[in-house]
TrEMBL record:
Residues 8-171 form the Arginosuccinate synthase-like N-terminal domain. PROSITE patterns: ARGININOSUCCIN_SYN_1, ARGININOSUCCIN_SYN_2. This is Argininosuccinate synthase. One of its GO terms (molecular function) is argininosuccinate synthase activity. Keywords: Amino-acid biosynthesis, Arginine biosynthesis, ATP-binding, Ligase, Nucleotide-binding, Urea cycle. Residues 220-315 form the Arginosuccinate synthase C-terminal domain. GO terms for cellular component: cytoplasm. One of its GO terms (biological process) is urea cycle.
Amino acid sequence: MAQPKGTVVLAYSGGLDTSCILVWLKEQGYDVIAYLANIGQKEDFEAARKKALALGAKKVYIEDISREFVEEFIWPAVQANALYEDRYLLGTALARPCIARKLVEITQREGAQYVAHGATGKGNDQVRFELTCYALCPNIKVVAPWRLPEFYQRFPGRRELMDYAKKHGIPVPVTPQTPWSMDENLMHISYEAGILENPKVIDHGRLAGVAATGLRAFRVPVKVTNAGDGATRCSALELFVYLNNIAGKHGVGRIDIVENRFVGMKSRGIYETPAGTILYHAHLDIEAFTMDREVRKIKQGLALKFSELVYNGTY
């Protein structure tokens, strides 16, 4: 039995990595509090709560932060015309600081000493999570298992994680039919890794996002001037959800790109950003009517820098 090390608040998704990490942290002597943020993903949150408790979490927090995600993170990005490397609307990059901010709040509320996350040592999310945590609480301690030799040497691949999950009774959602990772929030759905690392793999029809349905099913244009059902949508969140539904059904906002990560690696990502794409172009149209040439030049330079800061987790 490991010596007690204190309490850690884990950014928990319920997937393979964070479920295994929850159990592993307990093996290392931590008391684990799991935090799951609702930022618009399709998730059985009650099932996730029960799963985390069954795996040994001391407590589970599940909070709906969709509204603040739209109003405090997505809207400023739309206003800035934020676009990384001319293509990427920053759906994941915007979500991570929103989650990390709540992670710090819970850590302080619970008197915990540590936060933990399941981001890999090769990706961008580790930087986004940690810089936000340090900015809000400079003395906080971060446990990043995928950068710890005792963790990554024990789990060099997915097979070892799957075996560990089986040994400890952790339900595993990953199947051979979905050999890639998927991340969903109100802003977008992303597909990365696995077979998608091969640029020859272009079978988008196997991806299960709403825009994929639109690519196959909806060919009739729709003019979005008001809500066709007669309902009134006043809040930013309601409007964003409404646009996501309409635009997604018509296949709006899917891109397939290779981007430069913060750590210097290149990574392929397939992203669906229906509402974000509409709002980005609508905002450009508004600026065309209201902004003069010289101001627009300045704005374009600022937008480029802002996008880099968001992508790298330093804004």
